[in-house]
Task: inverse folding
């Protein structure tokens, strides 16, 4: 995938306890203008149980 085609203003999130997505910094570095945002949580419970994940998205969207 050509990451340069991803629109600017992307948010690269990863959960600190998620073995599937471990490095938002590397993903953000590959996408022009992306912001890395690691948050507490794991792969299974993040969407319903992690207010930090929700807050990161809400803050990013403004």
Result:
């Amino acid at each position: 995938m050509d990451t340069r085609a991803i629109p600017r203003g992307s948010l690269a999130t990863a959960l600190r306890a998620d073995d599937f997505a471990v490095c938002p910094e590397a993903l953000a570095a590959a996408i022009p203008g992306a912001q890395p945002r690691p948050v507490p949580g794991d792969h299974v419970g993040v969407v319903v149980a992690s207010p930090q994940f929700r807050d990161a998205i809400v803050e990013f969207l403004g």
Observations:
- Residues 3-61 form one domain.
